[in-house]
Amino acid sequence: MGMETFGEVLRRLRLRADMSFRELAASAHCSKTHVSDLESGRRAPTLPIATALDEALGAKGALIALADDRQRSVIWPEASMDALPPVAEILSDPRRYLDGAVVEELRAQLDASKAEDGTMGPAAALPKVQAVLAAVQYAVREVRPHIRRQLLVVGAEGAEFIGWLYRDLRNLPTATYWYDRAIEWAQEAGDGPMQGYVLLRKSQLAYDRQDPLKVLTLAEAAQHSSTRLPSGVRAEVLQQQALGLAMLGEPVREVEVKLDEARGVLPDVLGEEPGTLGASFTEHMLLLRSSACFTEAGKPARAAEILESILAGGSLSYRDAGYFQARHAAALALIGEPDQAAALGLAAARVARATRSRRTITVLDDVLQSMGRWLRRPGVRALQDFLADRPVA
User: Most buried pick, 138, 144, 200, 344, via CB within 10 A?
Assistant: First the structure.
């Protein structure tokens, strides 16, 4: 059974909603002929119209994901051509061509895209992940049972990662769609730790949306989702709970208690196998993430001190260094240091442009807004001008 096309999904959702072409067109602000052409495949969807239709039908990002023209093109990256069968053969006969060795090659492609994300940004990493997910979506119903679970595990990992990439691109509906697929596939595969990890990711997505209650409750759900959560994931979940408490205005001491609990779990990470889920969440990463907790708790000077120390160490990837420079700029602006904030913000904006990180740009927009009374200063004005001319997509 193949994956549905955009038109097929659109028709199914429209009929389920009991809407006529005219009614849906009115809700999505397009013509009924446009809707009809999309359903029949006579016209390809654009992301703006897909977004409007998705919202009108309550599709939770499904139509947006299918409309991504990079997603519609299923092509193996050049580096994998020797290792993988032609994609047409896999999709035409998954039972024959998808075995354990090919699933491992799909995992290798996923690992390669993760490496590219840190240095080149989400747009560079997307094609390899999309190829992996295309194979999973097309083949998961057709493969032999003993391969199915392996494929679902890789698919859940890939869906979680592409959700993160779309977060970085600030395409939050599509990120939500892929996080939902990740949980679904992890449940089918019986992968409890991945289910908990994706709930953690959804809590982080709630932070992007500035929804403090969901930040906290999703992190709590992650904590109780599995008795087998790896130590690094447990520590990150506790840090995320601290962030939720800070956003909700709880006393700083309660935030610090949660961060101390997270710190207490970290020694157990050293005893786990390399590559275990959450293994990258170290003391260094906890300290970095705690800066957001202190900013939200009304202690930006403490956040600025933490970020200055870590950024000086030069241990972050190129893209992440830009993001946390933006966070550092935000903390400096809050404590009344506009010139330093503007200089760091400008450096972060250049990284965001190079890596196409809209998440970083969103932080910088907030920084600029918080420095409204200092717009006459040359550095602040330079940051404003740079952000005003910023095609990042």
Answer: 344
